[in-house]
């Protein structure tokens, strides 16, 4: 009788150990699968940030550059009229009399800020692309950890391959290995 209880107890212990191994493997697979999904969501969120931010920045920089172009054109035209004027009556620009005592040597040009705007745009583009690179790298690391777990010897026997299918890492677009051509 004692021998029978030991065998039953041993079998129950074995079943319990196998159950605990399965439970641990399953829970880890779920956690890793959720981690992969989260990292892919981070990639998508970074793409969305780029899609939202970059067009707005480009339009802001274009607007500032166009505004400065207009101001500089007006200033240049006004100065050309002053230099050509021989009398105060000749200095009627846009219907306004200009003071004949303007000292051209000390007159300051408007400050050009569009170059700074373009540099800011370039910084934002670089930062956004760096964020994308980090998000893709993090996603690929999560995929590697998940795939390594589900494909392990015991885990591949215990886990349902439909529930825990292998994930694909981020793949580059066709032709992305070639450097883009920049045209100005």
Structure description:
- This protein is an all-alpha fold and 184 residues long.
- It has a domain at 35-158.
- Helices cover 68% and strands 2% of the residues.
- The chain contains three helices and two strands, in the order H-E-E-H-H.
- The protein has a two-stranded antiparallel sheet.
- Helix 1 runs antiparallel to helix 2 (114-150).
- The radius of gyration is 35 Å and the shape is rod-shaped.
- It starts with a helix and ends in a 26-residue tail after the last helix.
What is this entry, summarized?
68% of the residues lie in helices and 2% in strands. It has 184 residues and is an all-alpha fold.
Keywords:
184 residues, rod-shaped, single chain, 68% helix, mainly alpha, two-stranded antiparallel ribbon
Uncertain regions: pLDDT < 50 for 5+ in a row? 100-106
Q: What portion of the residues fall into strands of 2 or more residues?
A: under 5%
Distance between the termini: 91 Å
**In DSSP terms, counting alpha (H) and pi (I) runs of 4 or more, how many helices?**
3
Oligomer: single chain
Mean pLDDT: 80
The radius of gyration over CA amounts to 35 Å
Which bin fits the share of residues in helices? 55-70%
The major β-sheet equals: 2 strands, antiparallel
* Total number of strands: 2
Q: Could you give the order of strands across the largest sheet?
A: 1-2
Molecular shape = rod-shaped
Structural class: mainly alpha
Along the chain, the helix and strand elements come as HEEHH
């Amino acid at each position: 009788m004692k021998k029978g209880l030991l065998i039953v107890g041993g079998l129950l212990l074995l079943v319990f150990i196998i159950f605990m191994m399965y439970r641990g493997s399953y829970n880890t697979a779920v956690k890793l699968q959720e981690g992969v999904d989260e990292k892919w969501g981070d990639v998508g969120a970074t793409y969305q940030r780029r899609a939202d931010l970059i067009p707005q920045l480009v339009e802001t920089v274009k607007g500032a550059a166009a505004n400065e172009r207009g101001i500089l054109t007006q200033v240049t035209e006004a100065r050309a009229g002053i230099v050509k004027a021989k009398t105060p009556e000749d200095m009627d620009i846009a219907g306004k009399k200009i003071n004949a005592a303007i000292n051209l040597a000390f007159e300051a040009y408007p400050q050009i800020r569009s170059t700074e705007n373009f540099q800011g745009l370039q910084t934002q583009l670089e930062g956004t692309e760096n964020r994308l690179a980090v998000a893709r790298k993090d996603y690929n690391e999560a995929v590697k950890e998940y795939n390594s777990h589900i494909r392990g010897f015991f885990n591949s026997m215990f886990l349902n391959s439909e529930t825990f299918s292998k994930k694909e890492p981020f793949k580059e677009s066709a032709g992305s290995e070639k450097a883009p051509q920049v045209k100005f």
